[in-house]
Structure prediction request, 217 residues.
Amino acid sequence: MNLSDMRIFRGMEEKDIQDLLQCLSAARKKYRKGEAILREGEPTEQIGVVLSGMVLIESDDLWGNRSVLGSAAPGAVFAEAYACIPGEPLLISAIAAEETEVLFLNVGKVLSVCTNACPFHGKLVRNLLEVCAQKSLQLSRRILHTGSKSIRGRLLSYFSECAKKSGSSAFRIPYNRQQLADYLSVDRSAMCNELSRMRREGLIEYERNRFSLKKSE
Prediction:
């Protein structure tokens, strides 16, 4: 994925982006599957941009129960809200779901006036504001998906959104079974049993993380 195709760099050419990243002293780092990129309880001054792989946004309570709050695919941004509040400890952890490379942007340099009068700095800030607004909508979607009292209702709500986003009744989700259960705040075994019932009833077909909706309930 080219940097110019990413939302945060929208409206910029590759050469201009490289000049901007040099001005911002941006850094790239690679992570192994399961490795923590950012840890809950620690502050950060860095905005993360996923270059490749997948990042899971997770939260653990005092009893070790884990909730998957979302994911960040290539081109997505994470930790921007925390980075914008100096010293604010993270309420989440960012974990590499697979081999992942992340581009880090220091928020202080992003929000400060560029000493080189970089013409694309203002555009970067505007794009970042759009990203923040999009994140707010994503949180609203998760609240919507977990609003149903039944596991089936939560699954159908999430699958419906996936189908609409892909423009097809067949789609791929970014989660494995445990991650999907965490995202929907349900028990994994109960969710898997419900998926099996839905397949027997002809509502869905699936293989690993690929699903197909057959008919409405």
Observations:
- The domain at 147-213 is CATH 1.10.10.10 (Arc Repressor Mutant, subunit A).
